[in-house]
Specification:
D-Maltodextrin-Binding Protein, domain 2; five-stranded mixed sheet; 9 helices; 15 strands
């Protein structure tokens, strides 16, 4: 085992100032050692290589739904488990270099989710701007801070504006102001039952049989996400979140009966 595995490092999608960075700090506390990477693939590489003990991934927005690319990368991992989740409110701000104003803006950069969640405000206030997407929410303000132009703006958090010395031109531009993003925390070992747990399952077999098995054991079905698989043409996998903990009845009975189902984790949650 890599000697780095024992270090309590937490990886997240960076750079500094992303919402994932904020989620990681809220979940683990600011005293922990964090490490950032600019793509989810690189974050998960650190995790798979045991360079970090935990990592944090955005998994679902209350507005735009599942973060498909993150889910697709997550199911490729054959080690470790989802051990926790955290929900944080998301507020988007439009920012540019000091001296700029809304009338100067010709280009707006942001993460695809941030742009999608702010589309009404953008259409009403900056209908003719060019929209550019970046891999993470804090890469946009970094790029803006490095440019001389006052015509380029970023959509990001207030934390990012403070970090990179940008002026907020408009606050809370998200279309829905009670916007929440849910993050999953990956770890090495499933934690003991907390009494209000959710279990995540990966299903690639007969979904109808699995659903009937859950219903027969009176296990609550919380959510079902469907994604295509690359293993065979036309195939799909299903990620299910259900009520209960894998170590307790009736979930452990269900997992024994459906042995081909992959357990992705059990973690405290509300449903």
């Amino acid at each position: 085992m890599n000697s780095h595995a024992d270090r309590k490092k937490i990886a997240y999608l960076g750079p500094h100032g992303t919402f994932t960075h904020e989620a990681a700090i809220r979940y683990f506390g600011p005293e922990e050692e964090f490490i950032s990477r600019n793509t989810v693939k690189d974050v998960l590489y650190l995790y798979k290589a045991r360079e970090v003990k935990n990592c944090v991934l955005a998994i679902e927005s209350s507005i735009t739904g599942i973060v498909r690319e993150n889910l697709d990368e997550l199911i490729k991992i054959d080690q470790g488990f989802i051990v926790g989740e955290i929900l944080i409110p998301v507020h988007h701000h439009l920012m540019a270099k000091p001296g700029s104003d809304l009338h100067r803006i010709r280009v707006v950069a942001g993460h695809p989710v941030a742009i999608e969640e702010s589309k009404i405000w953008l259409r009403q206030n900056l209908p003719d701007v060019k929209l550019e997407t970046v891999p993470s929410s804090s890469m946009a303000p970094i790029e803006v801070s490095r440019k001389r132009s006052l015509a380029v703006a970023a959509i990001a958090s207030k934390t990012a504006a403070d970090l990179y010395g940008l002026k907020i031109l408009a606050s809370d531009i998200e279309d829905i102001h009670d916007n929440l993003t849910r993050f999953w925390v990956l770890g090495r070992k499933i934690q003991s039952p907390a009494g209000h747990d959710i279990t995540a399952l990966l299903v690639q077999e007969d979904l109808n049989a699995v659903l009937c098995g859950l219903i027969a054991l009176n296990i609550s079905i919380i959510s079902i996400y469907e994604r295509p698989t690359t293993e065979r043409s036309g195939g799909h996998f299903y990620l299910l979140e259900v009520g209960g903990h894998a170590m307790e009845n009736p979930m452990d009975l269900f997992l024994k009966k459906f042995a081909k189902i992959r357990l992705l984790g059990s973690y405290p949650g509300k449903y």
